[in-house]
Amino acid sequence: xxxxxxxxxxxxxxxxxxxxxxxxxxxxxxxxxxxxxxxxxxxxxxxxxxxxxxxxxxxxxxxxxxxxxxxxxxxxxxxxxxxxxxxxxxxxxxxxxxxxxxxxxxxxxxxxxxxxxxxxxxxxxxxxxxxxxxxxxxxxxxxxxxxxxxxxxxxxxxxxxxxxxxxxxxxxxxxxxxxxxxxxxxxxxxxxxxxxxxxxxxxxxxxxxxxxxxxxxxxxxxxxxxxxxxxxxxxxxxxxxxxxxxxxxxxxxxxxxxxxxxxxxxxxxxxxxxxxxxxxx
Length: 281
Ligand code: GUN
Known about the structure:
The chain is α/β, with parallel strands linked by helices. It folds into 2 domains: 25-111, Rossmann fold (3-Layer(aba) Sandwich); 136-257, Rossmann fold. Helix content is 40%, strand content 16%. It contains 9 helices and 11 strands. The chain has helices at 8-23, 40-56, 71-83, 102-108, 120-128, 136-147, 167-176, 191-196, 256-276; strands at 3-4, 30-36, 59-65, 89-92, 156-160, 180-184, 200-203, 221-224, 228-230, 233-235, 248-249. The strands form 3 sheets. The chain has a 6-stranded parallel beta sheet. Strands 3-2-4 form a 3-stranded parallel beta sheet, sandwiched between helices. Strand 2, helix 2 and strand 3 form a beta-alpha-beta unit. The longest helix is centred in the last third of the chain and has 21 residues, at 256-276. Residues 91-94, 116, 136-137, 165 line the site of guanine.
């Protein structure tokens, strides 16, 4: 049976490092989270992010706007916040209402304040090997694997899913760790053959229990990034029976989830240091 690799203890180690580093600073890094509308999942995620930031000793504020806020008004607000000297990190919670082009919003945030790592400049830096701010969930997955002593160098990794938030940036980060990376997706032919090649399989498709035991190599490490609410339960992308084949498996909830918030906190500290200490432009 697979070992269950929880994210909580790993997130706690990240928080401990952040507390230590914050206490040595002569300023308080400042995170702002913007939310539009009242989508229950967004309300809960944003509350969690702001609360954790304050708990660690950051300054943290949430700005809430009505769902009908015009795109231009949001963009203007972002331009003002880009110029605000005290502000280190700015995040606009996704998904956005359909009248707002997410791309324009993400491109409006100053790259040095982009704690989500979604700005094209940061995406470019991720792929070109430079320093920058990179997406939190992929960073959290790498941190979790390292905590559990997985050596990524030369490993055969298959990522299921090609989203801009998880699959694509994770592929870039894994290449930086010298892994051999395949990104599989809904159009991939002979998918079980592809996923069975993986020594490390990462599922980020958002389809409950999509990964079944016959898709997994004996002894593989399986990371479950999916979280889908089904009635009152949260289900991952990985079928529970995969635990009979894998050597290790991250749970849902309680696996990758806590790591995303932890890496957002780490990114906020990094953003503060990059911007205030003179960073690559
Ligand atoms: N919605 C779901 N995941 C994310 C994320 O990582 N960042 C933002 N801003 N919104 C999200």
